[in-house]
Amino acid sequence: MGRILNERTSALKIVVVGTGFVGLPHAAVLAEQGHEVWACDIDPARITAYQSGDAAQIERYVNEPGLAASVAESLGRHLFFSTDLAAAAPGAEVFFMCINTPPNRDGSTDLSYYRSAAETLAGILAGRADGRRVVVVNKSTVPIGTARLLEQILEGAGCRGVGVASNPEFLAQGNAIDGSRRPDRVVVGADREPDFELLRRVYPQFQHHVRIRYLETTPETAESIKYVGNTLLLTYISFWNGVGARISEALPNVRMEDLKLGVTADSRISTWGSYVSNGAGGSCFGKDIQSLIYQLNMTGQSTDLLQAVFNINEYQKTYLIDRAVHEAGFGFNQTTVALLGLAFKKRTNDMRDSAALKAVESLLGRGVRAIRAYDPLAMDEARQRWFNPDQNHLFERISYHDSAEEAMEGADAIFISTDWEEFRGLAPLIRAYAKPPCLVIDGRRMIADYPELTAAGYGYLPVGGPYLPPTQPA
Ligand SMILES: NC(=O)c1ccc[n+]([C@@H]2O[C@H](COP(=O)([O-])OP(=O)(O)OC[C@H]3O[C@@H](n4cnc5c(N)ncnc54)[C@H](O)[C@@H]3O)[C@@H](O)[C@H]2O)c1
Q1: CA dist 310 to 273, 288, 387, Å?
Q2: Which CATH number fits domain 228-310: 3.30.1380.10, 3.20.20.80, 1.10.1040.10, 3.90.226.10?
Q3: pTM
């Protein structure tokens, strides 16, 4: 990736606060552009890993295609890591807040981490000696109106000449680096021209671009764009799971793939989200729709549609297990289940809100004897989540495996939960490693060659299709 800025004229010193799935790719891509980027985090182990420049260490925290190489390329030249925000701040003109904003139990957003980081930064900026204008920019997904809260925190600390802006992040995990290099839009919400101008200097490559929409608006509109965008995407997913899949499962001879092709040929209808699955996970969709429901409820607005979208998505995460009981007559009690795919989607090690978490809960609740778990990238995270039997003694029933083949050995049922490419065309391996009448539950429609399985005595239960019993007795 060539550096595009002339360092004497255009490059800025930028501080990124929070270096998780959003902050680290953002910092790496800003550094690629030639800015001097300081990426700060309160987690010293994370910062040490990033400072090493070693791919394996970086990927333990954020595993994204191209990320480790981008970090290594800029490290010590354009990209610096620190736990010391106060030491990184002098001379910086733009501060990006990339702090986690998890959900509270009632669906509202827990702003405690964000607020703590904002207060620390406000204290530092209040004490700075130079009078140069700086801007603090929210990249975190935060409730509509949080830019005003930030303004109050900064003013309360006595900051002068510090603007605020909202610049929501739209990256999709698994594609964070490419998505940051070539976003479809950049949205900047601010009140004052100098703050817009600083952001234009951050993103000169996206100005007047033929394909990238660079939108300048109010902070509240920018904050709303993030929520409306994410909830619309989840609406597409829930529509296909709640309508398309149901039709193909219930009515004989309705073919899911053809249904999808026929409907999405209409140029007014999105093809995105027209796949069916065992529900959408990840740290954003569920959290953001719950937060928007909460925010709208607070203003007395109806949220029926959003609530239905959320409920359909949650239901979908365990509904194939219920179907296995009711349609295939599979009793999970005292059985061994191979769980293939733990990350919430392919090409990430992130298990936040993953469908596999709900599946494990449901399977343990149904009395399975053993869950044999495998994921190409998420095994470390899985062990961290489930290794502690003090949390739930039933977690002792989960074992961790190095390959799909190993996980499938001796399984009574196989549950494909993530759309990893290596699970496509798994039929020959299933035949080699799991004995019929093993039930194959396909939460991602990965096995196109399922007739090979049913002919060999396996049951096949896909999302978006009816249960297919073995055609040959086992
Ligand atoms: N993950 C995504 O795909 C995605 C996409 C778009 C937007 N977002 C939003 O971006 C924000 C960040 O998400 P994420 O997935 O990167 O979260 P994350 O949990 O992966 O990273 C957050 C980081 O902030 C650090 N942190 C917390 N308090 C801090 C402080 N006081 N000072 C410095 N660092 C601090 C944490 O140690 C952690 O490394 C959230 O609001 C999220 O909703 C996430």
Answers
A1: 15, 10, 29
A2: 1.10.1040.10
A3: 0.94
